[in-house]
Amino acid sequence: MAMVLATVCAIYVILCSHLVLAEENCFVVAPNVFRVGTSETFAVIVDGGPKTVTVTLHTSRSSPTSFFHWSSTVSTGSPQIADIIVRQTDVTNLQHERNRFMLKVKCGSLWTKSTPILMSPASGEHFFLQTEKPIYRPGESVNLRFLAVDGRLKPSKSIFRLEVRNPQNLIVERTEFQPQRDLLLTHTYQLPERTLLGEWSLLMKHGYNVWLTLLLFEITVN
């Protein structure tokens, strides 16, 4: 009973902001915007007995090949929820949020329908970064703590890059992270004894070629 209730609640949340493909005896709910590298959820409900439902993603309506494929036998009264992840390698020419792709659904031998969806380079992940203080002196250690979570607030599965840049905007360190299981990550950057004074920045690359300035800190001799 608890599992059924959780499934119904999840489907209700999906329905609030997602598109629907519905026809005789099949009901599919999926995002109307997909974010590259982000796990998106879709739900499948059937009526009138078990049916094999297939969900695919295509670069265009006329494209015979798909870059995502899911197929399962769904029973009446037992809706299924699954995830779609669009990789950067699937959409190499993505430039802006008005890129249209095709979502195709096949409901057994009853019907096949397709609908356009938007593909967005915006990341669905969230990053929270903290240093122990805003001002440092040359030679000190900058200790960082940060969280990297997906849209469900679970540890991110994506690889992201953290850059340390000096006041001249030159990269002095680049580090890659892949959170996977741990919510809280730590990193230490050791400032040289002789270094540029002024405002330094931490930048993170995530999602589809998106840079985000996360934090600024200052180096002073006072």
UniProtKB/TrEMBL annotation:
One of its GO terms (molecular function) is endopeptidase inhibitor activity. Residues 1-22 form the signal peptide. InterPro entries: A2M/Complement_sys, C3/4/5_MG1, MG2. The keyword Signal applies. Residues 24-108 form the Complement C3/4/5 macroglobulin domain. It holds the Pfam family MG2. Keywords: Signal, Thioester bond. Residues 127-204 form the Macroglobulin domain. It comes from the Eukaryota. The keyword Cytoplasm does not apply. This is Putative alpha-macroglobulin.
